[in-house]
Amino acid sequence: MNGVIPKIQKVVVIDGVGGYDVIKYEDYPVPSISGKDLLIKNKYTGVNYIESYFRKGLYPCEKPYILGREAAGTIVAKGKDVTNFEIGDKVAYISNSTFAQYTKFPSEGTVMKLSKETNDEELKLYAAGLLQALTALSFTNEAYHVRKGDYILLFAAAGGVGLILNQLLRMKGAHAIAVASTDEKLEIAKEYGAEYLINSSKEDILKKVLEITNGEGVDASFDSVGKDTFEITLAALKRKGVFVSFGNASGLIPPFSINRLSPKNITLVRPQLYGYIADLKEWKSYTDEFVGLINSKKLNIKIYKTYPLKDYKSAAVDIESRKTIGKLVLEVPQ
């Protein structure tokens, strides 16, 4: 290791399965690094819904468990075998354990070097957008290759991924049918590219979809809600439609017979981002596209609110209340 690094840092962990009471802000050892590792001092880290799945036990993890999935900051130490990064480099990366002042990460992993001129606001933007933008980019290219003229059903259309998907669908010339729980959220979705709007709290989603598509149904659905919308998506898809299921906001989808996909030749995919960025070439391709969209101002990352790291519990309450629009970010104490 290079330079003087503290031995103790502040982190956000969960120490059990349950409600918000299992979230703790506490002292934790700074990780030690070896040959090809980086030690990154985080400045901002993005809040994602997936953290609640670990807290509630939907996804297993060892306890105590440091939360977090993405961050941006500065390299403060590197292993002796690292040749592609230098101390002082500003980076954005996808990793677990980012709700921390320091994160250990492999230099050959999913980490991208940023311009030396990158300022704090830009760092925040990369921390806010990296994971969700790469999710949206890879899903619209590989989980379902969106084509011009497609009708796409988009749930949680005013969330972090949803607002990015709205923009990408518009860029690709597709018709985005946005579903959200309030008129305010739908107006934001429209501002970000949605063509058709459905208020799930007072409208029949399936009925509206069939009206919009003249009874045919949609080419694909990007559904991050899970249990509560599974049947709606199945019914809303047209013949040879593609069901992209990528979240459990309302709970896990119950077991079902695969034969139910046969009558309309439906394709059901359950993708995760990591399956699309597993090698360096894929990672570089998608991060280059992301940076290009940000630099050209073609993609806007809407940040709902920035919280101090110690207040993650408040951020968790907010994101799980379904009242937020866009992305939540934590600022890490320096």
Describe this structure in words.
By secondary structure, this protein is α/β, with parallel strands linked by helices. The protein is built from eight helices and 16 strands. Strands 3, 5, 6, 7, 8, 15 and 16 form a seven-stranded mixed beta sheet that branches. Strands 11-10-9-12-13-14 form a six-stranded parallel beta sheet, with helices on both faces. Helix 2 (120-143) crosses helix 3.
Content of β-strand: 25-35%
Q: Helix-strand pattern, N to C?
A: EEEHEEEEEHEHEHEHEHEEHEHE
Number of domains: 2
Number of helices: 8
In CATH, the topology of the largest domain is named: Quinone Oxidoreductase, Chain A, domain 1
Number of distinct beta strands: 16
The CATH superfamily label of the largest domain reads: Medium-chain alcohol dehydrogenases, catalytic domain
Radius of gyration based on Cα positions = 20 Å
Largest sheet: 7 strands, mixed
Percent helix: 25-40%
CATH class of the largest domain: Alpha Beta
Distance between the termini: 19 Å
InterPro entries: ADH-like_C, ADH-like_N, ER, GroES-like_sf, NAD(P)-bd_dom_sf, QOR-like, Quin_OxRdtase/zeta-crystal_CS
Domain Enoyl reductase (ER): 18-330
Organism: Saccharomyces mikatae IFO 1815
Keywords: NADP, Oxidoreductase
